[in-house]
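note to self: dont lose this again. the chain is below, predicted strucutre after it. 192 aa total, dont forget to put it in the shared folder this time
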Amino acid sequence: MEQRRPPEYILEVFADPTCVKDIVKAILHTIFFHRFFPSIRPKTGDLLDLTLPIVDDVELETLIDQRTTALIRQIDTTSNLTSTSVRGQIAVQFFEKRRRKAWFSTKAEEEVCWELWTLDVTLATPRTDSERAKVRKAMEMMLQKTAMKIVTIVNRNTDHIPPITTSEANPFPYQIVINPRGEGWGTRIGIF
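---
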């Protein structure tokens, strides 16, 4: 049986070096706020004159912080090599556990991705105070637009969410991946 590709939602983000980590973390928290199924105590955080949701889960917060730090480190390394705009990607994947339907399988379950969120992050480097003010205003507008896009998507697109078939605290495992298309053997040998 052929597997369907999960829906992928692409969010374009740009920020200056002082705010990029906070903006990426805020967007990831907004995604997880709507797709993290364990019971949580809702919290909010303020960023760029916006109030956004935060998932109050130590394990998830640690993972978001680690992956965001890795993305920023990768962007910083790239920005030292080039003078053009610097880009990076971070993706959130949600999985469901399914019984493997094979005769000679060693694992009884497999994880199948049912939703993918990709953040295309562009680093803006304003040079003057007037450029900084313009970038800050643009970041505010972008963050608000992105948060509203997430809310619209999660409210509109629910048919692909699999049923909860387990009593585990988190029925859907997840991953946060840096530069998801940059990994794999094809990239290493220069095919992609």
